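Suppose you are handed only two things: the residues of a chain and a line of SMILES describing magnesium ion. What would the bound structure be? This form records exactly that question and the answer produced for it, so the two can be stored side by side and reused later without any lookup.

QUESTION INPUTS
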Amino acid sequence: MRVGLSFDLKETMAHEAGAPDDMLEEYDSPTTIGYIQRAIEGLGHSTVKLGGGKEFIRNVLNEKVDIVFNIAEGRGTYRSREAQVPSILEMLDIPYVGSDPECLAVCLDKHLTKKLMQMEGIPTPEWRLIANQQELKETVWKGFPFPAIIKPSFEGSSKGIHANSLVDSAAQAAATVSEMLETYRQPVLVEQFIDGDEITVGMLGNSPVKVLGMMKIIPRKQSNRFVYTVEVKRDWKNLVDYECPAHLKEATTKKIAEYSRKTFEMLGCRDFSRIDFRVSADGIPYMLEINPLPGLGDYSDLIIMAVKLGWKHEELIALVFNAALERYPLCVHV
Ligand SMILES: Nc1ncnc2c1ncn2[C@@H]1O[C@H](COP(=O)(O)OP(=O)(O)OP(=O)(O)O)[C@@H](O)[C@H]1O
Ligand SMILES: [Mg+2]
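ANSWER OUTPUT
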């Protein structure tokens, strides 16, 4: 088969004047594209780089591909940015790896995802959504369970999440939200901070999806105010240890697996994803968010987890690719 690769490369993007230092944090490196290329070519297929943005549109119209391995994060600060490339692929009726536009759009919107989790009875920290400065002025903080974490509502890679995103009072929250509204140009989430183990869960396959593994993210410097900030993710080799399989009480492991499968299925995720939890001191796993387009670089949690479980980087990518092929039986013999 001829497999197209869609992606957004950090090095090809312009850093806008006045934009935050982590503006391009979600985008990928040529090294990551190399891993995907080697994984697919190792299965006996050929690959063609389609890139992202306008270049992707030109290339996908010109190149005849049987299926696309998509890791494009999309452009802008839109809540549907991750759905941009899969939407074009559906319009052109081209099979692709990973979740569909509706799933990607809903999951990038943390507020909407949390509402759906609540409806399904999955614990998620209490939160407020603040869309603009006027709403911020009108926010009534009484009863809100501080400390809280402030984060952009449509981002990933911990964009906007720094040590000062953890706040202890309404006054601190208001100041941080106000600044974030201006800097990240999107609604801001104020979320109850769950002090406890941080667990990320890898999900693989379809009907039924399987839990690939659970990994605990442990700060080297013990703290009851640990936040996996953008700075920590950049310097992960020095600042955190990863424990996989995660040592958890059996009942907690069971609950996390149950919530993860339920969420994957409810949101219609496909092929793979990564789900983040914090487990409170009383053992309740609170789901923070789900990433149906998790990073596949060697610094990405899903890859770190897979390697700890004994897979090679390329093998994990091959498993994801094969999960997609199983959904498109006709591709297999093309
Ligand atoms: N409610 C919370 N309680 C405790 N910690 C939190 C909470 N929300 C976020 N965090 C911390 O901030 C980190 C990043 O938050 P979150 O996963 O929501 O952001 P993200 O940008 O979508 O991350 P990514 O896409 O890289 O997984 C979490 O891994 C966790 O350490
Ligand atoms: Mg996360």
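WHAT STANDS OUT: The longest helix spans residues 250-266. The pocket of adenosine-5'-triphosphate (ligand 1) is lined by residues 125, 149, 151, 155-159, 161, 191-194, 198, 227-228, 276, 278, 288-289, 291 (CB under 6 Å).
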